[in-house]
Amino acid sequence: MEEEFGQYNFNFLGYVIKKVRVTDDKLIIEGINDFTVGSLIFEGAEEGFEIDERMIGGKVFGIKRKPIDNGFTVFRIVIDDAQITQTDIVAKNMVFKV
Hints:
By secondary structure, the protein is an all-beta fold. It has no helices and 7 strands. It has one domain (6-79). Strands 6-5-4-1-2-3-7 form a 7-stranded antiparallel beta sheet, with no helix packed on it.
């Protein structure tokens, strides 16, 4: 039976998405939370990830994670105030840098 997503991580609550880009094997979501500018960096992102521009301008509500095979994890980003309500990113790791 497939594992369910874990609990929400609310560390990014209100983080407004300003820019999304892909470099090498990283997906980078840049944004701002109050006065803190930072980046959510998904390392080892699954090849062929398509950036959905509809997430730009939205506010991150929280992020859930679900481990899958070969050391990868599905990161489900739940978004408020955007044209989409969630997006899934398959990557090996996620870090937040300011």
